[in-house]
Q: What sequence folds into this?
């Protein structure tokens, strides 16, 4: 799903966290394309979306990107980054 950046949307919260933690947008894309899901995805009780945590070691640090998925919507919504 993350092969094209047009399908990836960053929430305002994710953008603020990226700026605070000095994480580049390209790093987020790489994590989504090449990262691994190590924890079981969980349902967000507020939205009903399935939230997956993608992990990847990039530029000398571990990066984690939380993405919300919805069966009816083919896009990826980046919820937060750390």
A:
């Amino acid at each position: 799903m993350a092969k094209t950046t047009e399908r990836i949307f960053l929430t305002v919260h994710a953008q603020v966290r990226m700026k605070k933690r000095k994480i580049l947008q390209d790093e987020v894309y790489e994590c989504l394309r090449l990262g691994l899901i190590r924890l079981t995805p969980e349902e967000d009780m507020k939205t009903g979306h399935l939230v997956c945590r993608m992990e990847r070691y990039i530029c000398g640090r571990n990066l984690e990107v939380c993405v919300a998925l919805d069966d009816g919507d083919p896009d990826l919504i980046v919820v937060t980054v750390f």
Notes: The radius of gyration is 12 Å. The chain has two helices and six strands. The longest helix spans residues 25-34. The mean pLDDT is 91.
